[in-house]
Specification:
With 83 residues, the chain is an alpha+beta fold. The chain has helices at 3-8, 61-74; strands spanning 21-25, 32-33, 39-47, 50-59.
Length: 83
């Protein structure tokens, strides 16, 4: 359970984008490099379909590469492969 879920009393995940608290990719904003050379993933906090706040998940190169490897495995591409 995340802190947000605990504070809001959310008990489970849902596929309905209009129900619950979730983070989504910020529409129209691409991944980019920060001034410090890190990788920023723009995210939007949404509560029951209503945008609450925009922010960024900022990752080092190693963190982003680790996420890429994990995503590749989830997508069936294996380490470093292209699906």
């Amino acid at each position: 359970m995340t802190i947000t879920e605990g504070k809001c009393g959310v008990s489970g995940a849902t596929a309905n984008p209009r129900q619950g608290v979730r983070f989504e990719r910020t529409p129209g904003k691409a991944l980019h490099h920060t001034a410090a050379g890190r990788i920023a993933l723009p995210l939007r906090l949404v509560d029951n379909g209503v945008p609450v706040a925009d922010g960024e998940l900022v990752l080092t190169y190693d963190e982003a590469d680790g996420m890429r490897l994990e995503l590749g495995k989830l997508l069936g591409a294996g380490e470093g492969g292209v699906a």
